[in-house]
Design brief:
21 helices; about 575 residues; Immunoglobulin-like; about 60% helix; 3-stranded antiparallel sheet
Length: about 575
């Protein structure tokens, strides 16, 4: 019976893998270069600290995603950001297959599981946040793995699965800090279900031990941050988010008037507000003195306002619970003049429509929660599993709307659990439609047997041909010259790093170095640095991370354009050996 069940779901699994892989390849081929966003540099900085000093604890970013970057570097070559982006694509495909498995276990219908998996695997909205070097792709896979493991635990109540759930949660909130408070809620829910099956006494000690281990690790992380980095917390990003909420709700005038420091901060924020400057990151760049000590003063200022005006804060947050569900901001776009542009544009429009359907989530959540309230229905596995998905989604929405202050923030966090929203909304709609058709007319959407399998196979082949129809020419255009090109230069002043991105448009480069020349604010003379280049294969690129010199406790960051002189092997057919480029701080 088990072998028959595996074979029953094998064909849709293979088709879903092929189709999702095709969409991913088409999307990456359309604009193949790795994409670095403003927040990417902080992850690359932590990855550099891990590689050079072994320092896992940092005030800026949590360690799991930088460890992922470091691991890919170790396998594919230092600075190989394209390999990191490709590895995230693999995680996305794995997450899609996990969603298919999750849907199959919930609805017991392979065609419905296949459609829901396809809504995720062909979703360019999700993929647009997976391709750039950001933690969303890894977070999506980790959360999906956590939910799938929890579902298996709910079916078996095995203790080792309980510990595996704890493991996934540790990786998740050490990747995305907003999930730090999920473990108690999740364990409380599954222990409630265990009590109905008379497994509570056996599982409760393990659940408490797992929570103790999880938060002991968090406590140790905070302790190291406090003793080594003089910051009590996991990441100072939470501090700037607090200020972002104050500015979003225009509550900066509600601070303590008896505190001169708070009055000065309010005056500064009001002054920038009159200039239509409301982004805390931009304000931090303009007024660095107010943001010292990892924004500890700013955090206390914001906490005072929120805690002393909870009613105002809650009343302004509640509407966001609903409006944030459809806030849309695609990250990685489609190059309209490149390969696969036409079919990808169609998929993009479809993805946008499906994302808009997230606004229906409150309605479907009320439906399943209402069923959960009745003893007759709450014992049904599908109701219990839907309760789990709704719990996780509501947690994510509440934490995001109370902590995020931009539509872009909502979209980024919702990407992690958007596949769960798809299961809740579209699984309910399609599953309900199937039941109505079956009861009303005796018809089934996908008849069992070979006929149904052939129908699914033919449909997928048609979709596959449609996607491939956008292909015009080769995926890789032969190079017309042989040169190593400096594509971009980015600087991170607060940590004293330069990031230089090189594109190899010529033959493989196995050895090479470069000389950097620039002036600093502390020296009228040029600073000269020799930096070794990593191996760069033909038609690939590398990101070179450079620690700038220090003068006492001050970084000698460039105040002039950086002159780069390449020193390559004499056999290299290099058409240009000198570049001069400004290093821009995009944060």
């Amino acid at each position: 019976m088990k072998k028959k069940t595996i074979l029953h779901y094998a064909l849709p699994t293979i088709l879903l893998t092929i189709l999702t892989g095709t969409v991913v390849i088409a999307f990456y081929a359309n604009h193949p270069r790795a994409e670095l966003l403003p927040d990417t540099w902080s992850y690359l900085y932590v990855a550099d600290r891990i590689a050079n000093t072994g320092q896992l604890v940092n005030t800026w970013r949590l360690p799991i995603y930088p460890l992922f970057i470091s691991t890919i570097y170790a396998i594919a070559g230092q600075g190989n950001i394209e390999a990191v982006s490709s590895a995230q694509a693999i995680l996305f495909i794995l997450a899609t297959l996990e969603i298919y498995t999750l849907a199959a276990l919930i609805f017991q219908r392979r065609w419905l599981a296949f459609i829901l998996g396809l809504l995720v695997g062909a979703n360019l909205t999700l993929l647009s946040y997976v391709k750039p070097l950001m933690s969303e792709g890894m977070g999506l896979w980790l959360l999906t793995s956590l939910v799938l493991t929890t579902l298996l635990f709910m079916k078996t109540f095995r203790r080792r699965l309980l510990w595996l759930i704890a493991f996934w949660m540790l990786l998740l909130f050490m990747t995305r800090p907003e999930w730090l408070y999920l473990p108690p809620l999740l364990f409380a829910y599954i222990l409630l279900l265990a009590s109905w099956k008379h497994h509570l006494r056996r599982l409760l000690p393990h659940a408490l031990a797992a929570l103790l281990v999880l938060y002991s690790i968090v406590g140790g992380y905070i302790f190291i941050n406090a003793t080594q980095n003089n910051f009590v917390g996991t990441t100072w990003i939470t501090n700037i988010n607090l200020l972002g909420k104050v500015l979003q709700y225009n509550m900066q005038d509600h601070s303590d008037p008896s505190n001169p420091q708070y009055v000065a901060i309010t005056h500064m924020l009001d002054s920038d507000g009159k200039k239509n400057i409301h982004d805390p990151y931009f304000i931090m760049g303009r007024q660095p003195a107010f943001f010292a000590d990892n924004l500890s003063t700013i955090a206390k200022y914001s906490e005072y306002i929120i805690l002393h005006h909870p009613k105002t804060f809650i009343l302004k947050t509640v509407p966001l619970f609903f409006s944030s569900l459809t806030a849309y901001a695609q990250e990685s776009g489609i190059t309209t003049t490149a390969i696969f542009a036409h079919p990808l544009s169609i998929l993009h429009q479809a993805s946008y429509i499906f994302y808009s359907s997230n606004g229906l989530f409150p309605l479907f959540a009320l439906f399943w929660l209402a069923l959960f309230c009745f003893k007759r229905y709450r014992q049904k596995p599908i109701v219990q599993i839907m309760g789990l998905l709704i719990l996780i989604c509501i947690y994510g929405i509440v934490l995001t709307t109370t902590g995020g202050y931009r539509d872009y923030d909502y979209m980024r966090i919702y990407v992690l659990f958007d596949p769960l929203l798809i299961i809740i909304i579209w699984g309910t709609l399609l599953g309900g439609l199937a039941l109505l058709l079956k009861k009303g007319s005796g018809l089934q959407l996908f008849p069992a047997g070979n006929r149904g399998a052939r129908t699914v196979f033919l449909s997928c082949c048609c979709l596959l041909v449609f996607i491939l129809s956008g292909c015009q020419g080769d995926l890789i255009t032969p190079s017309s010259n042989h040169s190593l090109v400096l594509v971009s230069c980015h600087r991170e002043d607060r940590v004293g790093l330069l990031f230089m991105r090189f594109d190899n448009r010529g033959a493989d480069l196995a050895t090479g170095s470069m000389l950097l020349h620039f002036t600093t604010v502390h020296s009228k003379l040029h600073v000269t640095m020799k930096i070794n280049l990593p191996d760069i294969l033909y038609q690939q690129e590398r990101l070179v991370t450079i620690d700038v010199p220090t003068h006492g406790s001050i970084y000698w960051m460039p105040t002039s354009p950086v002159k780069v002189v390449l020193q390559l092997p004499v056999t290299s057919k290099q058409t240009q050996a000198t570049f001069t480029m400004d290093c821009h701080d995009l944060n």
